[in-house]
Amino acid sequence: MVVIFHSFKNFKHGIFTLCLLINLIAWIGLFLFRIFSTFLLERAAVPLISFTNITNIIKHPFVATGLVIEFIVFLLLTFWLATIAIIGFKMLLTESFNWDTLFQKSLEVLGRYHLLGGIITGVYLLGFLPFLHFLFKTPWLSNLTLTSMVTEFVSRNPFSLVGGQLLYICLLYFLIRFYLVLPLMVLENEGILSSLKISWQTTSTKNFWKKFWLALIKVFLITWSGYLVILLLQVIADWILPTYNLLAINYALFSLWGIVSLGISITLAYTEVQITNPRGTFLLEFLLIAITFTLSFATGKALFNHPINPVTIAHRGVNQKNGVPNTLESLKKTIKYHPDYIEMDVHMTKDNKFIVLHDNNLKKLAGIKAHPEDLTLAELKKLNVTANNHQTKLTDFDTYLKYANQHHQKLLIELKTTPNNATDFANIFAKRYYANIIENHHQLHTLDFQTLMILQNDIPKGNLNYLMPYNLTIPEENIHAYGMRYSTLSPDFVAINRQKHKLVYTWTPNSRLAINKALSLGVYGIVTDNVSQLHVAIKEAQHWSDAERLLQVLLYS
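RESULT FIELD:
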């Protein structure tokens, strides 16, 4: 408590105002980037931005150039905001704070280093993002989900998990040793090499590391003590005012406290010097607080005004590896767990028929180097496929669909198109299965935006969803529902879709922590490989108090 009191005593409004302003600019910047990404994808009908889609993007120079420019602008914006923070805090220390001078000097530094400064700042942001996420629950940080995607990727097997952790520890060590590089470049006009040398020498002493660990502990105590106080307020509200939903207010307080604690953390590093308050900042500070609180409150209200009751979806028709994915045998077993939908994948064959299969290459499942589109349906059905210690034959879509209909099991059908068959696939599939899909209330989804648009000519929008691996765009008016990778889910994305009356499905949270994240954000549907565990998690989440739900959002957003 002494640490917290001392920090508040030294905390100054100028730092808070600076942090508020930087957060708001970053928040607006991210929103504008998403608008621009959406504009590019719509104009060129490029389905998505991912490593698997690089070839398709390159074929559209307009999109490729635009995305490169957007990435460069993002780096420059990040560097500019870091420059504002460094110069602004220096001004507060020297009692020479002036807004005009601050922006003028920051733009001068941006012009001096431009892309080099952006790359360095980007590396810092990437390296420290997990800690920033954990400590400072600011609105714009909750929208930066890159570290969640990386964590999901490296956690797929023990070897990549251990290797990823070791690499990250090495990266953190060097980032800490070089933490003075940006301040030296911005304030002293030092070159990159001399800045690296000075920072390395300065951080080589035992005294530095002692101060570093002490400061880290203080920051943790301060930030989380504030969050716990807000959670305590929610607990009291649950007890005294159970009929009033105060979740949105406390969610907004989380956002504000994240910014306050960031300012306090900066102050902690300079307790031995006098920090002054600039004149005339109270009105600006009040305005920034009002804007930040209002935006965060709107997000919280959209998130929490819906009960936790998501649609349950068995990913690729399996539950806990009970069969080969996307086969009739696994469908028969998984139906017994009563998922609302069974998600499965469909490829078009050489003879324009449809096979139930996920991968575009048969090497992993069947041990042959071939694509589904290279073989006829009869040839594909003869193949033995092995996975999850089970072996069976591939299933044609008609057989799979017939069995599901007979057992009143709704399907979530992913259309797996290729550049060679996208148009034919959509037209043939829609013509052949339109009536069946409507009658039995099945859903379709696809990663291919062009296929989605073609299907909308024949299939009602309510039966179509658009899959997005990465949260880089804003909701479009002509899309009814989104399927989003769970690691890229953010409160803002879910809230915006809620406000626009659009549905958000998420895939594929398999651990209990990942499922709880999806549940706390109130998504419409959850696609998982462990639907039996999902049923248990939903029952428990439906008995969460408001404070427990707020805690889940705090931990995972």
